[in-house]
Amino acid sequence: MSQVPTSVSESGSRSGEFPVLFSPVVVGPRVSRNRIINSGHGTSLAPGRHNEELFLYEETRARGGAGIVTTQSQWINQGAGDFDVRYEVASGAYDELASRVHAGGALCFIQINHPGRQGFLGPRNREYAVAPSQVPGRFYGGQVQIPHAMSEAEIMAVIEDFAGSAEAITTTAADGVEIHFGHGNLVQQFLSPHTNRRTDRWGGSFENRTRFAREVIAAIRDRIGGDKVVFGARINGAAPGDPAETALLNDFAAMLLDMDPGLRLDYLSVTGGHFSSAWGTSFNLPDSSFPPALWESQARRVREQARDLGVPIFQVGRILGPALAERLLA
């Protein structure tokens, strides 16, 4: 819930008015001071590396009262896009970011991602897109991009990149790692039969199409354990206009929550939309034509699935003020 008070002192004065919103919550091995989340989102403030403007942007969210500040997507390898995780770790960017966010009283989570067939092509990013299958897409509704269908070796290399990136983040002062399983990115491309038309062990049945996500989770857990940092995922709760895909996303959330306790994620963050068309992108970046609490019903459904597991469920999408947030948390 990304709307925050204008200052920490204001948040203290309003905690009696919104008792649930301003109550602490346990998230894996950490405790957030409240339930206000600055979720990961693009800022266009830095050209592929953290800079002072981006540090200040994220620091201000913490000083404004957020309990958790999550970075925009950081890429698990150089060919995926901007903000290469290993460079940011080596440069000390995550330590600097965490120091500033902690000074503001918040936890600092790093979101890691691979866009698959989505994303910019070019010398600063990558020469070609990769995906489970050679299914075209229009990034931001622009020019058609036809991805290269990944080989077995390429799939295993990306799983290793996810695990290595998460492990590298644990060497910094950051509090958590969030893997992006939504917004039409690579993991969701493996999940959906629209974009995964493989006939090997990575495609076909639900079990095969979810194998990539399960392997990523298992590889990361093997590297980071269960008590170093928070480990969560961002997922799509619905596919507007596509009931079959929405049902699939429901099953995917249930599968994630039903994983062995040693592998289970510490939280799920429910969102929606994708970047493979202009229409899909509009749900990622909802303007005032969309209703408040855009993904309320989807988040409530996942929350009900998680009720007896102690797994917090985050909700995003036009949470326009503390009164609405308090109602959603009730």
Salient structural properties:
330 residues, alpha/beta, TIM Barrel, 8-stranded parallel sheet, two-stranded antiparallel ribbon, 12 helices, globular, NADH_flavin_oxidoreductase, flavoprotein
Give me a quick take on this structure:
The chain is an alpha/beta fold and about 325 residues long. It has helices at about 10-15, 50-65, 85-90, 95-105, 150-170, 185-190, 205-210, 210-225, 245-255, 280-285, 295-305, 320-330; strands spanning about 25, 30, 35-40, 70, 75, 105-115, 130, 135-140, 145, 150, 175-180, 230-235, 270, 315.
Q: Care to describe what's here?
A:
This protein has about 325 residues and is an alpha/beta fold. It has one domain (about 10-330): Alpha-Beta Barrel (TIM Barrel). Helix content is about 35%, strand content about 15%. It contains twelve helices and 14 strands. It has helices spanning about 10-15, 50-65, 85-90, 95-105, 150-170, 185-190, 205-210, 210-225, 245-255, 280-285, 295-305, 320-330, and strands at about 25, 30, 35-40, 70, 75, 105-115, 130, 135-140, 145, 150, 175-180, 230-235, 270, 315. The strands form four sheets. Strands 3, 4, 5, 6, 11, 12, 13 and 14 form an eight-stranded parallel sheet that branches. It has a two-stranded antiparallel ribbon with strand order 1-2. Helix 2 (about 50-65) links the parallel strand 3 (about 35-40) and strand 4. It starts with 7 loop residues before the first helix and ends with a helix.
